[in-house]
Amino acid sequence: MDDHVRPHRVVVVGGGFGGLYAARVFRRRPVTLTLIDSAGQHLFQPLLYQCATGVLSEGQIAVPLRRILKRHENVECLRATVTGVDPAGRLVAARRPDGSTLRIPYDHLIVSAGLGQSYFGHDEFARFAPGMKTIGDALTIRGKILDAFEMAESLSDPVQRRRWLTFALVGAGPTGVELAGQIRELATQTLRDEFRHIDPEDARVLLFEGGPAALASFGPKLSARAALALDKLGVELYLRSLVTRVDETGIEVKAADGTLTHYAAATVLWAAGVRAPGLAGALARATGAEQDRVGRIKVTPRCTIPGHPEIFVVGDLMALEGLPGVAEVAMQSGRYAGLCVRDVVEHRPRERKPFRYRDLGSAAYLSRGRAVFSFGRIRFSGFVGWVVWLFVHIAFLTGFRNRVGAVLSWAVTFSRGGRRERATLEPVPGPAGEGEEP
């Protein structure tokens, strides 16, 4: 087909907030859009911790991209993992689920691949301390948490029982704080009457933070209130504490005074640090783009790679003016990139102004009826913060069915302490005879 009559080709990499909000711009526009995502679904990542602790099901926070975009007739969804970009040939290389490769041509490329978990140079910790970035991670963590109570119930040795009832979490940002609070609520409300030999309320939840405060990004006032709420829940918060080792016995932590302490914990969970995926390095090498210390791509004020106005990088993967890696940044930058491309397609004479982020606030759930919310100089905590948190998350969940399902699940959890989503995968059996009593 002649280049002057064929539709403009747009490729979007990543089906998170940035990619989805970019794709939505092109409905009924003269473009063909290919949205590539390794999972083929849009994940509401801010609620992963509730999936991990049995409040919500994976289906309530993850929606197939094909379903979301089924009315966008010019959009094709492709489940594949992007492995590289050829800027000269304007081609994207991707790997299908079966391992085969394909190349997709583009006129404009929007990359919103997100960030992965960082262990600060200690990738060996990952074996013992899973992070939480995907549905698979959340289900793995759910299994580890529930299995810990089951193991404690079956043991008679008080030392081993105490180790299985100790949960160590690394990182007191929103994810770490929310996950810590939910484990304590699970132990003190949902599981309290279900065991015969242990009291789930004996579960210790240790939260380690390398900085001077929990939820530091919310400001000192809300951070102090969050610490107080965690203390009331029974979460043990350790500040200025750096993790030096994680293994099958537990976790070793270095305090501010240099003291090393080992905590016997059967369950260690990681909620600290992010790093860019391999695609970011491949893209930087192909385009000459600079990367920041965690591998994010440094972009121009128009969210493009310098020297490549046809390639946009948005969301968590872009490094621009110190913007945080939050959903609102991804939504707004994704939509902005889509509008910029649409301007080119529709031959609009005026260039769009540089991207400007509008802070819509940040919220973190602490416990039933308690949350913190920050918006500019406005600060809410306690019950008011919880109400704001509730409405914000209902508004941003994708799909009417998911919103209704989440509200019903929250109603059960908040009113009765029940958690319906407690299914876990059965452990894979070892070799014949392994683990059997003589």
Describe this structure in words.
The chain is of the alpha/beta class and 438 residues long. Among the domains are: 8-38 and 80-115 and 276-345, FAD/NAD(P)-binding domain; 123-272, FAD/NAD(P)-binding domain. It is built from 12 helices and 25 strands. It has a 6-stranded mixed β-sheet, covered by helices on one side. A 4-stranded parallel β-sheet has the order 13-12-11-17. Strands 6-7-8 form a 3-stranded antiparallel β-sheet. Helix 1 runs parallel beside helix 10 and helix 5 (135-154) runs antiparallel to helix 6 (158-164). The longest helix is centred in the N-terminal third of the chain and has 20 residues, at 135-154. It is globular.
Q: At CATH's second level, what is the architecture of the domain at 123-272?
A: 3-Layer(bba) Sandwich
- The proportion of strand residues reads 25-35%
Structural class: alpha/beta
Which fold does the CATH topology of the domain at 123-272 refer to? FAD/NAD(P)-binding domain
Radius of gyration equals: 23 Å
Intertermini distance: 73 Å
Q: In order across it, which strands form the biggest sheet?
A: 5-2-1-9-21-20
Low-confidence stretches: 432-438
Number of helices: 12
> How many extended strands?
25
Largest sheet: 6 strands, mixed
Helices and strands in order:
Layout: E1 8-13, H1 17-24, E2 31-37, E3 41-43, H2 48-52, H3 58-61, E4 62-64, H4 65-68, E5 75-79, E6 81-86, E7 91-95, E8 101-105, E9 108-111, E10 116-117, H5 135-154, H6 158-164, E11 166-170, H7 174-190, E12 204-208, H8 220-233, E13 235-238, E14 242-247, E15 250-254, E16 260-264, E17 267-270, E18 274-275, H9 278-287, E19 297-298, E20 304-305, E21 308-313, E22 318-319, H10 327-345, E23 362-367, E24 370-375, E25 378-381, H11 382-396, H12 400-416
Parallel strand pairs: 1-2, 1-9, 2-5, 9-21, 11-12, 11-17, 12-13, 19-22
Antiparallel strand pairs: 3-4, 6-7, 7-8, 10-18, 14-15, 15-16, 20-21, 23-24, 24-25
Helix pairs in contact: 1-10, 5-6
